[in-house]
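User: Can you help me understand a structure? I only have the sequence.
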Amino acid sequence: MQVAYFTGLRELEIREEEKPSLDRDDEVLVRIERVGVCGSDVHYYARGGIGDQRLSYPATLGHECAGTIEQVGPAVTGLGPGTRVAIDPAITCGECDQCRAGRVNTCRKLRFMGCPGEAPGAVAEYRVLPAANCLPIPDAMTLDQAVLVEPLAIALYAAKLGEVYPAARIAVFGAGPIGLGVLLCCKATAPCSVYVTDLLGPRVEMARRLGADWAGNPQDDDVVAEIARHEPWGLDLAFECSGDAACIDQAQSLLTPGGTLVLVGIPEEERIPFDVHTMRRRELTLKNVRRQKGCVAPTIRLIGEGHVDADPMVTHRFPLADIRDAFELVAGYRDGVVKAMIDLPSTR
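Assistant: Let's start by predicting it. Here is the structure, written out as tokens:
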């Protein structure tokens, strides 16, 4: 089978390996057919790591994936050969204090697909996974939609953590796939007003297309003044999805007293200063999002039942042989890219 590897900064290589086999009764063999290029993948590609998570080359990659089950272990029920699945890339131990407390997203022994030293990456023709990480999708759901389940599950978890409610006044800073997902999930959760900002014009347009009440580019507009003009009493919720520290300042200045700032994006810096006096005087709440918790199945329902239409987010498609072109496109924010998909070869 073919497997993609990072072999150095901005270097990718496709290698031939043996097809894996099941080792445990509760595992399944999945033919991976579609993989999305995530911003975290691009961090590894262009910078060699995220924070203190550094790659050791060669390293497998990818985690947003979907495919078809080819073989199941004897203890697996509810899944069988031919079942199309969305995949939760976070493999938990189920035994640590965090798992026992229901905090599976902070599992002490969590193994995430494509993370250094954890689980093998998704860009491979076949992967063996716990059956619990493979969720069947409706017949009408496309594999593209199944891939989008993973980033949208993060967005749905962020919306739940922020406690979106009817008539809430919300800002989303950063209109990449996660920010756009937050927009969609907030709108699907409750009638609310959502204001979106991004530095890239095509993403601002995408936010408008996906239902933003207002969207603007800080390079063209005074976004703080413009949002404040629409919401003079301030915002109830702000989702920082860009990783840009400047957006944290903007969010704090726009939040009403008692408002909540939800950090979703991954910053490049290890430390970010806050205006502690604004936080203190307005009694603002700060929440951090660590991937998602229990939101994969609800996200499949949101998409499958038509409550969320994320299809426009898929803007580009590449065969596995051109994966480096896909990464260069996403790393350079070129050609209006939002989500690039990698099509893996059919079974040979």
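Now, to help you interpret it: Residues 1 and 18 are 6 Å apart (CA to CA). The chain has a mean pLDDT of 96. Let me know which part you'd like to focus on.
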